[in-house]
Design brief:
- It is a single chain.
- Helix content is about 45%, strand content about 15%.
- It is of the alpha+beta class and about 70 residues long.
- It has one domain.
- The protein has a two-stranded antiparallel ribbon with strand order 1-2.
- A hairpin with a 5-residue loop joins strand 1 and strand 2.
- The relative contact order is 0.17.
- It binds zinc ion.
Length: about 70
């Protein structure tokens, strides 16, 4: 289900949240407090010159790397 989520950086993005209501609330809170939006993640990564910038945030962490 798509939600408008405000990220820690203040930007709002559509995020697909799944799971129980409480689970979704928890995830939204986490985005609000700890996660910056994909744009800012990319910008942040560029500043630190990491070529493998994670623009997918959480989804990327759950995927095995190579
Ligand atoms: Zn942002």
């Amino acid at each position: 289900m798509l939600y408008d989520v405000t990220f820690r950086c203040g930007h709002t993005r559509m995020v697909n949240l799944i799971g129980q209501y409480e689970e979704r609330q928890r995830k939204m809170l986490r985005y609000n407090n700890f996660v910056i939006c994909p744009d800012c993640q990319a910008a942040h990564a560029a500043v630190h010159s990491k070529p493998s910038a994670s623009v997918w945030g959480e989804a990327d962490r759950m995927r095995p790397r190579y």
